[in-house]
Amino acid sequence: MIAILVRSILLVCFAILAMRLMGKRQIGQLQPFELVIAIMIADLASTPMASLDIPLWHGVVPLFITVALHQLFTLLSLKSQRLRAFFSGRPTVVIRDGQIDYRALEKLCFNLNDLLEELRTGGVLTPTEVGTAIMETSGKISVFPKSQHRALTPADMQIETGYEGIPLTLVMDGRLQKENLPLCGQDEVWLRMQLNRLGFKSMRDVLLCYLDTDGRMTAHPYSGSSPSRAKVMEQNEVKW
Q1: Above 80 in pLDDT, residue 65?
Q2: Which of 63-72, 92-101, 130-139, 164-173 has the lowest mean pLDDT?
Q3: Among positive and negative, which fits the CA dihedral 179, 185, 189, 191?
Q4: CA geometry: angle at 169 spanning 168 and 175, to 5°?
Q5: How many distinct structural domains can be found in the chain?
Q6: Burial of 8 per CB tally in 10 Å (0-12, 13-18, 19+)
Q7: Which of 7-16, 76-85, 158-167, 171-180 has maximum average pLDDT?
Q8: What whole-number distance in Å separates Cα of residue 229 and Cα of residue 220?
């Protein structure tokens, strides 16, 4: 029983390591060859886990050989457009200016029910509202509404807007995010002073604290009450 437990823990760790070595893109959007490799990794890890007669390295070695093949295929895809098309395929336009390309759907083995479902997921009710819909190589459909049906933007109204970037997380779960603090050009003393202004006696009382690119700091308490906000920097001082 202990042997099975140890083998299971090791093989799961090796499988997770293998997936991490292949990068985040492999998890976020599976290309055809990546889907095959992901299935193979699961099979290679489960076989030695279920049978004590199979040596552990019989599962671990093929696992990392599979990862090496993935890296090779990825490198070849980066170097050659033809190999990229062979491994991953090409994007296909399935709707153009509100007109469904049924021949393209037939080649993709994609039926109308699935297409309408993808459109609804993209916030579009009918194909006539679509300017362009593209079946990506990952199997997802990118939907772009016609200009008359898209949401109104500041650019449509000729309104100038300021820079808006990713908020900088400074405290998470009561712990200082040391790697992020220098990005705003401040130190821990400054952060503690700002948190005191927002009503927090200690950093351990803060569930989440982040700094927006407009210079406003927001701090969420553990109590579940409303977060505290304050202007702590000018927008021209934002450097991240």
Answers
A1: yes
A2: 63-72
A3: negative
A4: 155
A5: 3
A6: middle
A7: 171-180
A8: 9
Is residue 79 domain-shared with residue 108, that is, in the same domain?
Answer: no
Task: Give, to the nearest 10 degrees, the angle between helix 81-88 and helix 57-79.
Answer: 130
Are 54 and 47 spatial neighbours (Cβ–Cβ below 8 Å)? Answer: yes
Give the tokens for residue 106. Answer: 């037939």
Please provide the size of the chain in residues.
Answer: 240
Report the pLDDT value the prediction gives residue 25, as an integer from 0 to 100. Answer: 54
In-domain check, residue 162: no
Q: Is residue 26 scored above 80 in pLDDT?
A: no
Q: How far apart are CA 95 and CA 151, in angstroms?
A: 20
HEC states along 24-87?
A: HHHHHCCCHHHHHHHHHHHHHHHHHHHCCCCCCHHHHHHHHHHHHHHHHHHHHHHHCHHHHHHH
Model pTM score: 0.61
On whether both 99 and 36 belong to a single domain, the answer is no
Confidence of residue 73 (pLDDT cuts 50, 70, 90): confident
The span from the CA of 144 to the CA of 156, in Å, is 17
Chain centroid to Cα 162, Å, comes to 26
The two structure tokens encoding residue 119: 């459109």
| 172, 205: one domain | yes
User: Taking a C-beta distance cutoff of 8 angstroms, is the pair 63, 38 a contact?
Assistant: no
Residue 82 and residue 7 share a domain: yes
